[in-house]
């Protein structure tokens, strides 16, 4: 008995074979730098100082990763990045969800004008306000603090826009029916509307976390004490003299170590990104 046509389509597979080979080829190209970095991280620093072509030859070692555990400040920088990225993510999700619900489902004066002002934030580059921001944070004594590192990332115009559009896609019959049942606006938001936006929140959370984790520009300016460095700034500070002290292999091991949390977050929540982008959350 032949399998159903909707589950087995060899003709479709054959027709798309060039696309599959092309996607595989592009995947190999994109993974090549990652493989090179991992290869550097498992080579001894002495071999790499002779030539980086030794990556393709044994022996290999995990000494660089062991050095991270014993003699590096990476764990302190790792903790700082984790606090900053997690704090930014939580606050962006809370503020963007509330603002998006207000813009999409509530009526209040100057709603459209305020939404346009929020959208202007997408067009203003961070570099344009960096001097004013630096002075403001200096006046309030927020430099070299976790709050000072997190606050700029909390003002996410993209998050407000994303959640507004997602809330608008939900049929209004749902909250109107809840209002007929004497449900408050807060209960409608918390119990009915918010659970339907989980794919969008997961997508926004991943983007925000990755931005906070990989951010280099603002932590470089705000964190002047070494103990307050984030992982990106800390790793960059060790690159100036790596050949004489820690070595290229150790630096590559630090980079791999720094990349693992972002990879784990993406792998766990990637299905929510697909759902949000495809618009399949609202039925």
Automatic annotation (TrEMBL):
Bilayer topology: Multi-pass membrane protein
Segment forming the signal sequence: none
InterPro entries recorded: MetI-like (IPR000515), MetI-like_sf (IPR035906)
Name recorded for this polypeptide: sn-glycerol-3-phosphate transport system permease protein UgpE
Key words of the record: Cell inner membrane, Cell membrane, Membrane, Transmembrane, Transmembrane helix, Transport
Span of domain ABC transmembrane type-1: 78-269
Gene3D superfamilies: MetI-like
Gene: ugpE
Assembly mode: The complex is composed of two ATP-binding proteins (UgpC), two transmembrane proteins (UgpA and UgpE) and a solute-binding protein (UgpB).
